[in-house]
Amino acid sequence: MTKQNDNSCQTYHRPVLLKESIDGLAVKADGVYVDVTFGGGGHSRELLSRLGDNGRLFSFDQDEDAAKNAFDDSRFTFVRSNFRYLRNWMRYYQVEAIDGLIADLGVSSHHFDDIERGFSLRGDAPLDMRMNQKQELTAADVVNNYSEEQLQSVLRLYGELQNAKRVAAALVARRAKAPVKTTADLMSIAAPLFPREREKKEMTKLFQALRIETNGEMEALSEMLLEAIALLAPGGRLSVITYHSLEDRIVKNVMRSGNIQGTVVKDFFGKSEAPLLPVNNKVITPSDEEVQENPRARSAKLRIAEKVDN
């Protein structure tokens, strides 16, 4: 029996599209599954509830705080690691194939609520933003040490900021006088560069860009998805929840073609050689009721795909 406080799960992070994402896995009672974004354990708990005595679940999270939510269940293994190392860890646990993988991407409610981690626009905190607090690179390192051209590229690519050039220039000018150390420092520099009516939205994009760069999120996602394809048994499923266009584009491309670029390769007869078949051609989005109860769900998109037997 799984032992963990339901309230602690909800406090740490409210799972989005819970039923839909786990339903999408078509869980087999004796199957082997992976949750690469454990967080508060909401999706893992639901998945475990559908497994029999011989089922297995491996859940990944690189955050030390998430490890405190691990279950006491013989079918469950917590892996404190970045999910980009999925295949290495499965090899370590002598797992050759999995029947399904769930990923709830983005930042957990816990990270936004823990002001001192530097993810939130609320309050003043060190400019940290590390998911894994053992890694060296922080958001402050990005802001203070990247060249102006590198900063501009990060802000444009990961934040989709139209005035990325101006923001990058302002950051470089400010750090020449004193290091940019806190979230308040960052906001005081950037705020005058955004229209008042769009300030919060643009600032959110700025924080997103620095967070993605600090944690190498797009590279890790790409690596994990390709490793997941290699691990999935025929008929196995991927169930992935995204929150912004960058990660959604990667997931869509991989599910459509089997590669990050989205290039569909066809055989001599014109048949697609893509290793996955999308289960839902139209993305699944939260109900109005769920969005009202959990604002984080507003931008969520669920995509599901099945491994084909080539």
- Please tell me the CATH architecture of the largest domain by its name: 3-Layer(aba) Sandwich
How many structural domains are formed by the residues?
A: 2
Whole-number radius of gyration?
Answer: 20 Å
- Compute the number of strand runs: 7
What is the subunit organization of this protein?
single chain
Give the terminus-to-terminus CA distance: 38 Å
What's the helix count? Answer: 14
Taken from the alpha-carbon principal axes, the silhouette is globular
Low-pLDDT runs of 5+ residues are none
The side-by-side strand order for the widest beta sheet comes to 3-2-1-4-5-7-6
Mean pLDDT: 91
Name the CATH superfamily classification of the largest domain.
Vaccinia Virus protein VP39
Strand share of the residues? 5-15%
In short:
A seven-stranded mixed β-sheet has the order 3-2-1-4-5-7-6, sandwiched between helices.
State the main characteristics.
310 residues, alpha/beta, Rossmann fold, DNA polymerase, domain 1, seven-stranded mixed sheet, 7 strands
Question: What does the model show?
Answer:
- The chain has 310 residues and is of the alpha/beta class.
- The chain has 2 domains: 6-109 and 217-307, Rossmann fold (3-Layer(aba) Sandwich); 116-215, Putative methyltransferase TM0872, insert domain (DNA polymerase, domain 1).
- It is 41% helix and 13% strand.
- The chain has 14 helices and 7 strands.
- It has helices spanning 6-12, 18-23, 42-49, 64-67, 86-92, 109-113, 139-145, 148-159, 164-175, 183-190, 199-215, 217-231, 245-257, 288-293; strands spanning 32-35, 56-60, 76-79, 98-104, 232-242, 276-278, 301-307.
- It has a 7-stranded mixed β-sheet with strand order 3-2-1-4-5-7-6, with helices on both faces.
- Strand 2 (56-60), helix 4 (64-67) and strand 3 form a beta-alpha-beta unit.
- Helix 8 packs across helix 11 and helix 12 runs parallel beside helix 13.
- The longest helix has 17 residues, at 199-215.
- The model has no long low-confidence stretch (mean pLDDT 91).
